[in-house]
């Protein structure tokens, strides 16, 4: 039982981390777009603008990668929850409650 609870807790934390990373990269995308627009408006050097566009591209590449990692982590968490949902001791645990709440939030 302790191993199951530990696995559920670890997978829940992984899902939370990927969710935060996606939010971070989306925020970074907005900041980079704004920065590029300001550089273009101010007539900045083309090299500086190109460098900022490269940074934006790197950020844009990370979003789908994090989404894939989140999908995998969610799938693993759903599997763990389904596998151990019949165990009475696990049903009443904080770990399972947190996992179910996170899964509901991610489905919304």
TrEMBL record:
GO biological process, one term: tubulin complex assembly
Gene Ontology MF: a single term: beta-tubulin binding
SUPFAM superfamilies, per database record: Tubulin chaperone cofactor A
Pfam families xref list: TBCA (PF02970)
UniProt keyword Cytoplasm, yes or no: yes
An example Gene Ontology CC term for this record: microtubule
InterPro entries in alphabetical order: TBCA, TBCA_sf
Localization per record: Cytoplasm, Cytoskeleton
Keyword Chaperone: yes
Keywords: Chaperone, Cytoplasm, Cytoskeleton, Microtubule
Family classification: Belongs to the TBCA family.
Subunit structure: Supercomplex made of cofactors A to E. Cofactors A and D function by capturing and stabilizing tubulin in a quasi-native conformation. Cofactor E binds to the cofactor D-tubulin complex; interaction with cofactor C then causes the release of tubulin polypeptides that are committed to the native state.
Record's protein name: Tubulin-specific chaperone A
């Amino acid at each position: 039982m302790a191993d199951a609870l530990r696995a559920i807790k670890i997978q829940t934390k992984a899902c939370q981390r990927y969710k935060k990373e996606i939010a971070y990269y989306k925020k970074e995308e907005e900041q980079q777009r704004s920065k590029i627009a300001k550089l273009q408006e101010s007539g900045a050097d083309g090299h500086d603008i190109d460098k900022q566009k490269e940074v934006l591209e790197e950020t844009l590449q990370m979003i789908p990668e994090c989404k894939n990692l989140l999908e995998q982590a969610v799938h693993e968490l759903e599997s763990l929850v389904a596998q151990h949902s019949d165990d009475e001791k696990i049903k009443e645990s904080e770990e399972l409650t947190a996992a179910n709440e996170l899964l509901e939030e991610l489905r919304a």
